[in-house]
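hey m, so remember when u said the tokens were messed up on ur end? i reran from scratch. heres the input so u can diff it against urs
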Amino acid sequence: MAIVLFIGLSSFANAPEDHNPGLPSAYEQILTHGLSDEALTQAIDGYATMSDKYGDLKETLVVIDYSKSSNTERMYILNMGDTTLTRTSLVAHGRNSGNEFATSFSNQVGSYQSSLGFFRTAETYEGKHGLSLRLDGLEIGINHKARERAIVIHKADYVSLDFAAQHGRIGRSLGCPALPLEDYTEVIEEIKEGCLLFIYGGDENYAFRSSIIAQS
């Protein structure tokens, strides 16, 4: 779903007192769209760290919150330049990561599980799913085998609420963050070639293992 949410600092004069004190107030409104505060905090902290490392990193930040039900829109596309939430979308997880909820994650070839952590979007190509977007995993031992595993963003007809109505959940991939047929071309064009993508899963061990989070 394409949206544009403009977030001004003055909008939070009456923000609830129980918001995450470590989260810049300009991002608080994004949480009303269902993104967990820990996912957003880790994403923007990691973005700051990786922006210092990669001077050419684009201002678009993609966050996938796998702690949420797969039947909800859990991909969030943020413009870090003007602090806007531009789009949300359904997104699939790997079939061995769980059913409606993703609870297991892996970096191993053949695991058919999703990987956590920070990725950088790379080039597009035409594959068996049509237009697809390659991802480079930036975290050794967590997601660095993304290319070897052919973890890409592609379209899939099983990523739909109609499928969920029939099966109790949307369909699952072989580990790729697959998108709905609708608007997937626009999404890929928006986030290709140099955007940071963060996949969150509510996994307590991730923060301890991640060198990027440790630097934040």
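this time it looks ok to me. The helical segments are 37-53, 161-167, 184-191, 204-209, 211-215. if urs says something different then somethings off w ur setup not the seq
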